[in-house]
Every structure is written in structure tokens, then in C-alpha cells.
Task: inverse folding
């Protein structure tokens, strides 16, 4: 998509003359979430923080998380009573390629010029330029997943086309995209090897909206997403894991992988009914066999992981 | 609905012990919109402000607005380029009864306990009690319309039942309710003469959500609603009118009423084709007749209004 | 709705300069259906024709048809093998008020300026003015039902507001409206006592469409509607009855009314199982009783009808 | 609807010649639920049973239940852990008229002739006639609500028209109808004062289905309905209350009515915030006032009820 | 998915103490379909029966059926008047891989504890353990397709995850799965080469339901599925073929394959209009050519098949 | 699909005896669009015409258009004010394979026998045979895309199965198919390398419809399609480009391809923010670099194209 020499965001245009005098340091967005608030509301974060104060799930954990499935995340979060962390109903760009990264959140709302004029004037004051989708995209870090609330908008709800999708891929090192909205240039996007989850596709560029927040709490489907959540996407949908649960999710997943390995091995022998093996072996002897297998494999995994 | 002696909002329960020390004056909601921001972003408001700083569309205009229809609001806003101020798709409680009032906005998001615990602790510090739907309801003023973003939630998205609906009616002097969510106790609510617009009805009480903002900008359908907008609801849907356009909407509506009066009178004579009369009389003589009628009736209306 | 001094149909605007020279008598619509075609394709019509060549179901039959229900029409058409004459899924303006009249059909399609320019130029040549919704509305006759294909369009798919609805009511003598599209000014429309069936309601005026045919075959839901069909609408939906079946539908409905009268009378006695009475009495004696009742009541109806 | 002399259920037609010899006492339906099973599976029923072994919620309780709302039923069932007893999404025939009665359940499935032939032959043997919707309707008792699984079918899913609806009203003494399917003759039905809940309306008669069970467990929406459940329908939807909870639901509703009475009275005084009164008075003095009021009013109600 | 040491089916928990004394041999499900009934209702079955009395379409026919398409099944069933044997609207796991096998049916309904307690007690008595999804899965035979009515349930409607899907594949020798409900572990399931048709995918395990029948007649979409039906699934949807029609379907498909082979060969020559060749050659000479081709190819196929 | 010896279109059957005498040269379709009308309404066509008078976008342009994406078409049409030329919501047969060709339009409507009888009699008179889907298919030319209005019909809305799809592919030289309706034989169709866009798939053959127009203006989604429009389909949807804009669309796309090439090259260097490069370079030096690159690459493309 080329847009040289034309202004696709006509509705973002504004006259400064009608603006009130802004007498305080202006914040560049309608909805703000100061850094201290971010720290307060993610106080259970056990990790370091990024310069923008988002929790920083460590790189090594992000790598381990590439083997996670939705079910493994569900298992731990359900125990903790976190039942609102999963969103689905997306078109999945590359089925079979797991998405993992730290949530970088962006919110749009339907434009109304009285509000947008003020926001743009404040942006001019504070960051020296207008606010639009690329404002957020320019802030992305390696390991981020761009998570965007465009309230399900299709026409004019296209957060990126293939050029910006290419840029997001570069900037996040293949992190990913989740948008409760649409994308454009699907043919071009399909050739780029970054995971993406979107509601729909449309040929129009983004428009008739205003950027209202960056790294604020946003809602995607039935999830309140916090900046810095670990985003895990598979063929089914997307989980947003609060940082304080990441370690446990990963450790429990190790056990589950071994459990599934053993269960399928047993089933493949063809000697057992499903109830004799799964969810837990019914006979004491089988149970013992499983537990020894689990222990051995866990040891192997830990050695292999430490050996890396 | 009676809830004596039981706690329906179990998910709001929290332990203070795990909370971070809050070293700053806490704001009682996840999403805040300071009074100065509210003033900045509604700078075009030509009227006084309420104590909470919302624009205060005058009472007399609210009364005049009871004769407005969606089309009359559309006419002015479309000219101004405000195409995102209308929401529909609601169940309308009392068809034929126009709703008019000042927007009092409330936002909920899906609960997550790590965030909610902090919000409730901050609420405890700043307002001395927990945050929930009644926190907002207790703040309503006469002339308000309660406008609630419950993200279309049906089960557990019931902002009020008949008792609280009764209270809202008392507090707002019959203002009204718009909820992108549900209500309960519909039989009881139907007996109370306040306009209401809701997506669905459910027997469950509100739950699995957290109150995240009061009098902040919220989204209802394709509208960014600002606190203090004039809310106008008819049989079709709901318009949110920025205060700076209220006067013009009302004055133009006077002309439209007269125009329609005259047009129907002419049609009733049975002598004309529709194109000869509507939208504007085609013959000079008819046009003149209309203009004289318009002038006369406008004078009458103004006299009558001033005479009140 | 008032539209004085402004042009709501901006997209209908056109420059004649770019037009091809039209060397033949121009027809004023994209899709034409010459009068001879109309006669050929409704050759089974047993009645007179209107000046525009539509079949003219007689006024007396229209009056009798006010007692019809969807089921009574279904019964005859199903026997004839006409299974595609019923459309539902409408909002019904006045539940309980039966709509009956002769179909006056109108078709719109999405506007494209290259086509519309030519159509408007042809209209200018042949009828001296532009084509738009009022062009059709001005042609309505007493006893007509205006049937409009606006392909389910909501925004900009509003065939009439309250002024034109008022005019349609005048022109058709309360005939009615069926639109696979929307209306506006619902509050105003609700006060006018003409039946109407529409898909949705919107505050915008009609726009982004072009009028492509008047009194041509159109599709409403799963029905191919022919100009002059008898339109019968009840609480459930709308039947389009080919003129050749109107007499039989009415005569059979007389019997059905008597059958239902008798059946309910019998049920009210409380002595019979439903299977003993309905659909047809199982006992010979009851059957005879019914047949005598039927004969007597038919005689009464015929006398009463002739006596009028 | 009249069907004299014609056979609307052509698909029910069958040839006996191809049938297997039936060597056992045949049960007349595809899915059977013997009387002992019905007794076993409703073992918690505290009341008498009807001759067909369904639990018989007493007439007096049915009368008291006419004041219930969905919320009052929800309150008790939620406490008991019964979260699957509510169905909604129906068209409600007479809004504002509560439906109460004992569930009489009927199940249909899509017809397949190999199965239907056998079922009809068995019916011929055991009950002497074919199975169809009237078979069930003839078995209705006063106080019953007819609850029908027609799997959401619209065309051909019409359990009754106005004649049979009239009969059901007679037979059940105004009990009611819930159908996960459709009805026909809506104009006629609307004139009969019995509550009804249906998914849609269609002019076709029932067809392309076979009756597969009477007074068996069926599914309506997300509810497993048992024969004899107390059915309670209001403006919102329908609750199916297991008989063992009816007494408690009714007693708790008495308290709720008084609670709401008092709460609204207090709100009407205009002196209190909503949180001071509702769900439970916050001040000890108010609490005491409420408790005295509750006690007094309960006494009055009990006296009045006993006095009847 | 690992579930060791936890009980995911909490809602299946029950206390025996409250149970009625069961004085008869208990049947282990709410809905029963005795073996004799199964035989009676599938009396037209021309084949042997499995030990559980389901019709046993022979293995050789199952193999031949792997070349069937939906259209070829439609052709025969439509002639027989069986219009309710096709279901679609599924997610298809492995597009392009035909599913063929004998229907093994399972039914779930929404749980209600009063009923479930009794069912589980009866199960304890008769089969010595509780009833749940694995009860049915353990009974699968080679050549079966597991067909499950979970009434479209998504959350908690997951009949299997990857472990049980692996087991079903083992037990049925790659038969297949049709569920009017969901699956979980889609990433894992995708790696297993068994056909599957499901409505949706969810990370939750099965829950809030009770198993109510095994090898009973069930409804999937608009089909009444009988145990032992031949299930044929392609890219479009799933056909359930009564055993008595299998032979004819297969033989007619042979002719259709040859017909299509010849038709496309002729089209590829580029000399003919479509109407000259298809559905049946219009010229006598072409017709003769086709008939000779058909005969020759049928002979070849029969020889090849017999030679196997 | 084989249909030898049977008549699948029973509803097309008709008796000539009841027909009116047709005294004029009969047109073979209900809706006609004479050649002169086609020429008038596509007067802006800058190219030659096909023998049937449709605009003939040159073969070379069709080839160049194979590199177009929806966004590139959108860009030019939006500037021209043509906002109704795009349709989506289709199932796309071969994702990643662009469809390009000249629109050959066909319209069906729900059958009604009174109308169909006349149409078939007229067809008999004028073309010597009955009208049905193959009538249109036999008229296809190389480079055509078959565009069919079957009003979203699924059951009986199957314009082709694999045999006719094979023929369409032969006749159009791989042009393509767009149907607002369905196809059958999806397994067979999937093996044929022609692009296709359809709403759904069904095993039934086409039926319960009548062919009402060939190469007339039709509506597909929100597009008025004119015969001869350039049809461009990608992964997202289908654009119908009026011939007068084809040249500009192609030329602008060249620039866009180069722009995207350069933008991604710059992004890949990792030195720039997205706003520095895209939509247009912000620094003068970068801008100059881009403009030189654009000029150089355009020259290369033009040389390469001319050199072909």
C-alpha cells in the first residue's frame, strides 16, 4: 500500500486556532495510565521491568513458552481463579506457529473531532507530532506482541498493511499481532513469517478512529489485558498470562508434556482402555510406572535445559 | 431482588495483606480521567459545569429536547462531520417516551483479581469503601442519564434490577439508562416510568466484572461518549450530542417541526405530488407560502416559549 | 425530517457534459420491463388491468382479503406448488392490522456514478427530471402497496421518513409498505395508521443507491414479486399472491373461518379430544354435524356479502 | 387453519407390509422413559404424583408461583448449584402475564422413514393409531405447561396453530406452551389468553419430523427438563424448577417481595444513598427497622394466605 | 492435557446417601435404547450385526465408500425420499481426507444434580463405575465413527483433547469423530491423522454436562442418526447413510465416477458446449459412445475389484 | 455428479398449452438488457467491445492485473468516489491465486411457475431450448469470470459441480467464478486450478430458481456489477473495476509495488522508525533517495514490459 502525497486520515485533521490554552504539561492521549499506576497495578510481577515500566517476562521463559498450548495455560489459570484471560474467534495467520511475547497494548476509539483536536494539540505539545497508529508502532520492542483494541471494526479498522506488518516483525523480532479489528494487504502479510490474530480483512486504510491509549489496560474479547502480560497464541486462540503465573505455567507444562508422551505411548500399545490410563493410571503398578517415567523425563529435561 | 445476608459479588472479595504499599494518593479506579482533563477535552462546552466538572446542558434545553427525534439530531451532526454519535440495537423499555439527559458514564471490564485487588485497596484508601456498581449509582444527579459500558455482557452484565432502577429513577428525576449490557427484574422495571436502553435481560446479578471508570470517556457501540453529552433516545436508538451543538440542534428542530407540519397539511389536501412539496416546494408560489408559514409559526413558538 | 435548501442525495449529482449522445428514445431506468412484457408475464391474470398494465385485483376482493391470515394463503399456494411467495423477518409497524393491496414494485441498487450518470441523463430526456425515491412514490395509486428492494440496506436504505410515509398513506388510501431495507422517523411513522414492514430503522436519509426499476419483477427475501400481485401481510409476514389464485384463496378462507369457528366451539364444550375434532371430525355423526354447519354458515356469508 | 379432507403430514405416511414382525409388547415411541424410571429420576419429589407418575406440584403452590420473577427463582437455584435451569431467547406471547405450571414434555426429531415406519407400526399395535403432535396434546392435564423440543425448527416446526392452541388452553386451564420451535396462526393465537414462548412463527403446518417421546427428559436451550418440573415464565424467559425446590423458592420470594417493598419505600423518601439501603441496610438502626418490617409483613402474608 | 490428581468433573460428584433404593436392575443411562429396540428400528439392515447389535456395514463396503462424495450419497437418498441425512457447518480437521465408518452414538445433556446422582448410582450398580465421556470411548470398535451430541456446546463441550483423540484413533483404526460440540488441544489433534468434524475449539475440559445415552438415536443438526449408520464425511459435510442403502449408493457412485471421467475427457477436447455433453449427451452418437465407455469401464472396475 | 436419465430441475417443467400467444419477437429472459443499453451504460469504456458488446479490457492488461491486490484497486477507486465496487465474505477456493477477468453476469430469482412458464416458452421460441444455468455457461468466452447472483442461496443454489466447473475452466481459460450462492462437489472442484469465490457448499443440485438474466447489471453484495467490468479477486475479496479505470489502477500499482519494495528494504536495514519511512519519507534526503529509486525502477519495469 502506497499513500505518498495523499492524506488518508482526513478526519485527523485539525485547526489549532480553536483550542483552549493548555496550561499544564499535556499528556498525549485521551486515556492515560501513568508509569506509577502501571507499577501499582502489576505489583505481583516477579521479574524486572522494561524501560517503559512494563513487566519483563525473561527471554528464556518466552522461549520455553513456545511449546505451550491453550490447555496448559488454562490448567494453571483456572486453579488460580483467573477465568477471563482467553480470547478466541480470530483469523489465525500462520496456523501451527505459536505466538509468544510481552503485551504492548494500544487502544482506539471512534473519532469525534472535538476530542481529537484536543488530543492532537496535546500530542503536538508533548511529543511534537500527531498521534496515530504509527506512533505506537514506533515504540515497539523486541519480544513484544502488539495488542490492539479496535472494537471489532472492519472497514477502517485495519491496524496495519503489509508494509507496517513488515516493520512490526522487524521491531519485535517476530513477536506478533493481536487486533480486535482488521488488517489489510493480506496477500502481502501472508508472506511474512510473524504470527497474527485478527477479526477480519479489509482493503481500506485505518480511519474514522482516534488513538486513545498506549500501554494502558485494554479489553480484548472477555480479557482485561495489562501491558506486559505474556501473550500465548496457538491454533485455538490467545491467552494473556499475568507475569506472576508464568513460571508455574511453564513448569506444569513440562509435566503435562511428559504425561501426554507416556499416555500416548501406553495407548499405542493397544492393551488398555482409556480409563485405565487417562487422566491418571488406575492400577497402582501402572501409576508407579508413570511416576518413575515422569521423574526420569523431568530430570532429562532439566539437564538439557541447564546444559543449554 | 433481595440479597440480604449474602455476598453476590464473591469475585470482588480481596485480601489486603498481599497488597503493595501505596505511597501516593490513590485514585479509586483503574482508568482515571482527572477533572482538568475533563475540562480540557470538553473545552467547546458553552454552558456552565456541574460540580463534578461535566458540562451542564441547561434544564430548559433538556425540556425542549424532549421533542427531538433521531433524524433531527442527525441533520445537524452530519453537517458538522460528526458521524459517530449514534448507537442503536437496544431493547427500548418504553417505546414512545423520549429520553433526554446529561451523560453520566461508567465503565466496567472483565475482572482479574491481581488488578481488582489493587483497585479495591486504592478505593479503601481514598473513598473508604469498595468499588462496585452502586458506587457510581450513588453519584447520580437530577437530569443525568446513566450510560454504562458493560461490553455487551448478558450473564452477569446486569447493571441494575428493579430496586436500583427505582433508585436511579429517583436520583435522576426520571433521567434514564443506557447500558451496553443487560438488566434484570424486567417485570419490575417495566412498571417504573423511566426510559431505558439495554442489550439483553438476564436473571443473574452483576458479576465477573470490575468497575474501572466513572465519568471517563467510554465507548457505546460506535460512539465515544463524553461525560456531559446530551443523551437523546427515541424509538430508534440513542444520540449523544456534544454540548456545543445542542442549541443549533434545538433551533433547527423547530424549523423541521414546522416544515413537517406544513408538508403533511399540504399532502392531506391531496392536490400535490410528493415532489412538488417535499423536501422543498418546487413552485415559487408554494415556496413563498411555506416561508410565510414558517415565519409565522416560528414567531408563535418563540412567543409561547418566552411566555412560559 | 426537513431537508430544505440542501441536497441530501449528493451522490446523485452528475455532469451532463461527459454523457454520450443518446440517439434513441431513452428509458428512464437501468432495468426496464416494457408494458408488453408485463402483460405477457402476468398472462394468467383473470382481472382487468390498471392504466400501467398491472393486474387489477378488484376492490371487493381486497376488502375480503382483510380477513386472511398467512396460513390461509399458504394452504392454496402450497397445493398449487407455489412455495416461494412468502417473506418474513420484518419489523411489523402495526401488529394486528392486516395489510392488503396491489404490489407496486421499486428496485434500488448500489450507486456507481458511471451508470447513474447515464440513467439520470436518460431520465432528464424522457421524464424531464432526475430519478429518485419520490419518482416512484409519485406514481402510487389507491389500493397499492409499495414494495421496495433496497437489498437489506440499513444506513442510507431508508425509503421513507414520516413525511413521505404520510404521503404514501394518502396516495394509496392506507395501502401499505414493504421494504427490504429501512425507514426513518419511526416515532412519526408510528402515529400514521398504515401497515408497514421493514428490516430496520436508521436516522440517515436514503443515499449511496440508485433507483434502477419501477414496476419490474423484484426479489424480496425468497419471493419473486410481480407488479400487481396481491400483497397480504399479517403479524407473521407477507404473502405475495399471484392474481390468478386470489379468488380461490378467498373462497377457501371462508371455509376455513367456519371450520375454525366450529372447531373452537366444539373444543369449548370440553367433551372431545383434539383428535376427535381436528383436522377433521373422526366420528361420522360429528362429521355430518360439521358439514351441515359449514353449509349453513357459507350460505349466511354469501347472503351477507351479496346483501352489501 | 383448516385441513379438512387433506393429509398435511404426507411424510408420516407408511406401508405396514414392509414392517418386521413385532414380537414384544411395543412401546409407542422411539425414545421411551418407563414410569419406574420417571419415579427413580425424580425421587426427590416431595409431592404426590399425577396418574402418569409425574411429580404433582400442588395447585396452591402453582397459584403462589404466579408472583415469581426469574430473579427470585435464580436466587435459590444458584445456591443449590443448579445453574442450567433457565432458557431464554423466546418470543413471549403475552408480556406481563406470568406462566406457571407442571412440565408436560414432548420431543420431536427429524423424520427418517425407516425409523418412523417402525414407530408408527408400534403405535398402531399399542395405542391403535398413529403418533403425531395431537397424540401428546390429547394427554394434557389441567395445570400442565406443554414443553416441546422441536430443535429450533421454523419451517414445519409449528407445534400448534390457533385451533390447537385453543384446545391446549382448554385442556390445561390456561397452563401454557414452551416450544423450541415455532407456532402458526399468530393472529389467532394472540387473541387467546394463554402464555406462550416460541422461537419463531411460520405459516406451514408441522412436518418433516417424527414424534419421538412424551414425558421423557428433553433439552430446551441449556436446560434438561424433567416431566413435572414447575415451569415459571416471565417477560425474560423460562425457569424449570425441580419440584424439591418449589417450597423454598416460594418462601424466599415472600421475603424478597417484602425486601423490595421496603427498599423502594426507603428510596422514595429520597434521604438515602443506594448503598445505605440496598442490598442490606448499612446502619444498625435501619437494619433493625427493616427486620421488624419484614417480620410484620411476613405475618400479614401468612395470615392472609391461611385466611384464604 | 494432564489432569493428574485433580477432579475436573466436579459437577459429577454425588452423595449416595440421598439416593432411592433401586429395586430393579438399573440401566446405566438416563435415556436407554434396549438391544431389541435397536434391532426393531434398524430392521431393514441387510448386513450382520456387531455384538452390540448395531448393523455392521461390511469392511469391504467401508473401503469402497472412501471414494464417495456428498453428491453421490445425495443422489440415491434423495430418490428414496431421505432428505434429512446430511449435516454441515463443521470445522473439518483434515480437508481432502474422506471419513467413513459405522456410527457409534453418544448423547450428553446439561447436568442437573438430582438426575445425575441417580444416573451415577445406577451406573455404580450396573457397571461398577461412574458414567462420563470415557465410558463411551472405551466401547469403540475398529471401523467406528464416534458421533456425539453435545448440543453445540463450546465451553465445556470438548468431547476429547489430544490424548483421547489419540485413543479414539487407535480404537477405531482411524475411524473418525463427529461432534456437535467442541474439541480441545487442537495443535495436538492436528498431528493425528484421523478425520474429525467439530463445531468449535475450546481450552476447557468437558464439564457441566451429563452423559445420557450410548448407542441411542441422536440428533446431529437436521439428522436423526441411528447407531450403525454408515457415516461419510468429505470437505463439505457429513452424510449418515442407513445401512439398507449402502450397496446402491456404492454402485451408483461407480457409474457417476465413470460419467464424470468421460464428461471431463470430452470437455477437455474443447469441441463441445456443456449442454451437448452434460448431464447426458444430447446427440445419439455421443450417447452411444458414452454408453459403450460406461460399460467398458464398469467391467474393468468389477474385474479389478474382484481381482483384489 | 451424474444426472443421466433423470430430470433434476422438476420445477422448470412446464406445459405450453396454457401459454398466451406471443405476438412479438420474444426475449429469452425475464429481465433484459438490450445491446444498445449495454453500450449506453458503459459509454466510458475506452476499449474495444466483445461480440456481445461487453467492454473488452485488453488481454495484456488482464495479465498485468494478476499482480494487483485489493488495496491497490481501492486506492484509485476511492479517489474517483467509487466506494461500492468491493465484495467479500466469500469462501476462496485457491488462496494465493489471484483471479482476473471480464465479468460475465448471470442472474437467478426464486422460481414461480406462472412467470417461468412464459420465460421458457419465449426461450423455446427465440433460442430453441429451455433456459437454465448451462444456457449461460455455454456462452462463456476466454478471459471471462462468471459472476452469478443466486441471492446467497445455499440449498439448491449450487451454480456448478465439478463437471461444469471443469467446463467453465476450459471455456474461460482459467478465468474464474464468483457466485453469491453455492457450489457442489467441493472435493472435485478443489482439484481444478481455477479461482472461485462462493458463499457456501451444498450437495444438492441447483433448483427452485429460474434464470432471469444474462449479461445484465446484477448486484453482488454491495456492488452493482456491469457486464465487462474487470474482476480482480485476491485472498480478501473481489473488486469489480469499471473499464475506464483499469489503466490508472495498473499504472498506480506499479508505483505502489516499487514504493513497498523500497519501504521494506529500508525497514529491513533496521535504522528507521516506521514514521520516518512510511507512508512517505519524512527527511528530504530520504525522500530524494526514494524518488530516484522510484524513477529507476519504473524505467526498468517499462523497459521489461516493452521488451516482452
Result:
Amino acid at each position: 500500500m502506497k499513500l505518498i502525497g495523499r492524506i488518508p486520515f482526513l478526519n485527523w485533521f485539525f485547526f489549532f486556532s480553536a483550542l483552549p490554552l493548555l496550561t499544564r504539561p499535556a499528556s498525549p492521549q485521551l486515556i492515560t495510565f501513568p508509569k506509577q499506576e502501571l507499577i501499582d497495578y502489576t505489583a505481583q510481577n516477579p521479574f524486572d521491568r522494561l524501560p517503559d515500566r512494563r513487566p519483563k517476562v525473561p527471554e528464556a521463559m518466552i522461549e520455553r513458552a513456545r511449546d505451550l498450548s491453550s490447555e496448559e495455560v488454562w490448567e494453571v489459570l483456572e486453579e488460580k481463579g483467573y477465568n477471563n484471560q482467553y480470547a478466541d474467534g480470530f483469523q489465525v495467520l500462520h496456523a501451527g506457529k505459536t505466538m509468544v511475547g510481552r503485551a504492548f497494548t494500544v487502544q482506539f476509539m471512534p473519532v469525534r473531532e472535538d476530542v481529537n483536536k484536543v488530543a492532537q494539540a496535546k500530542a503536538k505539545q508533548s511529543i511534537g507530532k500527531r498521534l496515530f497508529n504509527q506512533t505506537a508502532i514506533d515504540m515497539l520492542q523486541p519480544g513484544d506482541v502488539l495488542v490492539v483494541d479496535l472494537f471489532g471494526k472492519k472497514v477502517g479498522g485495519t491496524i496495519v498493511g503489509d508494509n507496517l506488518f513488515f516493520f512490526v516483525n522487524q521491531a519485535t523480532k517476530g513477536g506478533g499481532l493481536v487486533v480486535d479489528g482488521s488488517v489489510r494487504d493480506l496477500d502481502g502479510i501472508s508472506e511474512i513469517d510473524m504470527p497474527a490474530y485478527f477479526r477480519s480483512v479489509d482493503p481500506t486504510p485505518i480511519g474514522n478512529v482516534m488513538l486513545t491509549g498506549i500501554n494502558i489496560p485494554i479489553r480484548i474479547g472477555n480479557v482485561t489485558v495489562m501491558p506486559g502480560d505474556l501473550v500465548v497464541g496457538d491454533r485455538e486462540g490467545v491467552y494473556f498470562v499475568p507475569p506472576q503465573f508464568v513460571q508455574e505455567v511453564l513448569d506444569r507444562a513440562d509435566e503435562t508434556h511428559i504425561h501426554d508422551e507416556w499416555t500416548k505411548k501406553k495407548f499405542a500399545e493397544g492393551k488398555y482402555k482409556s480409563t485405565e490410563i487417562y487422566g491418571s493410571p488406575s492400577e497402582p503398578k501402572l501409576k508407579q510406572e508413570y511416576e518413575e517415567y515422569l521423574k526420569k523425563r523431568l530430570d532429562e529435561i532439566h539437564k538439557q535445559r541447564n546444559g543449554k
Remarks:
- The longest strand of chain A covers residues 99-110.
- Confidence is low (pLDDT under 50) at residues 1-26 of chain A.
- Chain A touches chain F at residues 1-5, 8, 129, 134-135, 137-138, 161-164, 166-167, 170-171, 184-188, 190, 201-204 (CB under 8 Å).
- The longest helix of chain A spans residues 246-269.
